[in-house]
Structure formats: C-alpha cells, structure tokens
C-alpha cells in the first residue's frame, strides 16, 4: 500500500493494524511527527540495553541522541536511502525494523536491523516486520537493493532462526567480534538475494 505523504514529496506506506496474540498492533512508517516524541523511542531502545539483549549497541541514549537518530533516519527516508517501520501497541513502541542502503560501491546492498520489545516476542511480530520492511525496501529505495545484509551475534539463536525462516543465508562467521558478558563472541553475516 503506497501513499503520498502530506507535505513531503516522498512515498511511504499507510498504517496497518494487525492482531498478534490478541494484541492490536499498529505497523507504520516513521513520521515527521515522531520528532516531537523522542522519549517514546528512547524508552524502547533503552529497554534493550536494560535487558542486556544481544545487540551491537550497549549504551543508553540520551534524549538529544535519540532526537538526532530520528532526524537522521527521517532524512534518509526522504532521500530514499532508508526505510524504517514502527510497531506500536497502546502508544508504546514495541518493535522497529529498518533497511538502509550502504552507499557508494555498495549501493545495491541494504543493511537490515530489527528489534522487538521483550514482552512482544514469539508472537510473529518479528517475522511480520521482516516481510514488511523487505517489501518496502523494494518499493521505496533508490536504487532498489538487490541484496539485504545483516550482522548478528553468532550466539543469537532466536534472531538467526528468524532470518533463516525468511530466506537469509549465512555467508560468514567472524570470530571474537562482539564483547558480551565479559566474553568475545562471533559475528555472523547473512544475506538475502532479491
Ligand atoms: C530476534 C527477534 C527480532 C525475533 O522477533 P520475534 O517477534 O520474537 O519473532 P517471531 O515471533 O516473529 O518468530 C519468528 C521466528 O523466529 C524464530 N524465533 C523467535 N523466537 C525464538 C526463540 N526464542 N528461540 C528460537 N527461535 C526463535 C523462530 O524461527 C520463529 O519462527 P516459528 O515461530 O515459526 O518457530 C527478537 O527476539 C528480538 O528483538 N530480540 C532482541 C533484539 C535482537 O536480538 N535483535 C536482532 C539483532 S541482530
């Protein structure tokens, strides 16, 4: 579903409401109005740090940093360099997914990222966001990415299973790339050819 966003000369998807485990969840693109509510996004991202999730970042964001992140992301969307979707339940951010072109000689490659809030995992939301963000990347990014690439802790079983289920193939494992709980763990690179 595509729509011309009011006041902006770029295409975006419309909001969709989907039921996951009885919860009515809104899936929508990141919007300019989100710049007014950085706290909502900051709480989401910082909840991953609090739970010690297997993600590459490990420092909580300040409100200023979150604002900068949202501003940069909106600017990438406007340039058709990135796509970013948000899942919300009762006005709380419960998941995000993004694909950003890698630029220059890697402009045919889109880097994919996904996170789902702890209490909302295992109900199909991550899988749905994965399919939606890939579809959106094919409609909206210029150039259209031919490869979707991701990096994941080699120990992150739930994420690796999700990626395999959606067609990603492991192409490399680089040892000792991530420091996690005082130990070094590997980084797995996976690709989806489109
Ligand atoms: C990885 C993550 C995004 C999965 O999202 P989710 O909403 O729980 O995933 P879904 O419910 O859609 O599950 C999709 C598939 O993922 C896999 N999966 C999800 N949770 C799993 C678990 N606890 N153990 C093993 N596999 C799991 C399964 O293959 C599942 O398919 P199935 O239900 O048919 O078995 C979520 O666990 C998360 O955000 N984790 C913390 C942040 C993170 O690790 N992000 C990825 C960084 S690279």
Features of this protein?
194 residues, alpha+beta, Aminopeptidase, eight-stranded mixed beta sheet, two-stranded antiparallel sheet, 4 helices, 37% strand, globular, disordered N terminus, binds coenzyme A
Structural overview:
By secondary structure, this protein is α+β, with helices and mostly antiparallel strands. It is built from 4 helices and 10 strands. The protein has helices at about 40-50, 65-80, 125-140, 155-165; strands at about 5, 10, 15-20, 25-30, 80-90, 90-100, 110-115, 145-155, 170-180, 185-194. The strands form 2 sheets. It has an 8-stranded mixed β-sheet, with helices on both faces. A hairpin with a 7-residue loop joins strand 6 and strand 7. Helix 1 (about 40-50) crosses helix 2. The chain is globular and about 40 Å long. Residues about 1-10 have low confidence and may be disordered. The chain binds coenzyme A. Coenzyme A (COA) binds near residues 124 and 157.
Task: Write a short abstract of this structure.
Helix content is 28%, strand content 37%. With 194 residues, it is an alpha+beta fold. The strands form two sheets. Strands 3-4-5-6-7-8-10-9 form an eight-stranded mixed β-sheet, with helices on both faces. A two-stranded antiparallel ribbon has the order 1-2.
